[in-house]
Write a structure and sequence with these properties.
Distance between the termini: 28 Å
Number of helices: 1
Strand order of the largest sheet: 1-8-3-6
Strand content: 35-45%
Length: 98
């Protein structure tokens, strides 16, 4: 196996930022210690708490009690940040990890 050139290493590093470290299905529950950069809603879903880097941003994203996200909604946070906690009261999402 040959060694990667510096350009190839940089390209793989950039690709890793796009692809992340996989994904996980999150159902109705409180989830913590997350490292997500985005999620896709799988069905009608209510999210009552969302924290980015440990700070509550629920209302910043228009989420909360009585707000239903429709299946297919795609939520992305700013680069360099991570979704650290999320409470789903109904429905499910697939979260994509950094």
């Amino acid at each position: 196996m040959s060694k990667l050139s510096p350009g190839e290493v940089e390209s793989l590093s950039k690709l890793r930022k796009v692809v992340g470290n996989g994904s996980k299905l999150l159902g109705a529950a409180a989830h913590s210690s997350l490292t997500g950069y985005s999620f896709i809603v799988q069905e009608d879903t209510e999210i009552t708490v969302m924290q980015v880097n440990g700070t509550d941003v629920t209302s910043d994203y228009g989420l909360g009690v009585g707000v239903t996200l429709k299946g297919g909604a795609y939520i992305v946070i700013p680069e360099g940040s991570a979704i650290t906690d999320i409470t789903i009261t109904s429905g499910s999402v697939i979260i994509y990890n950094l």
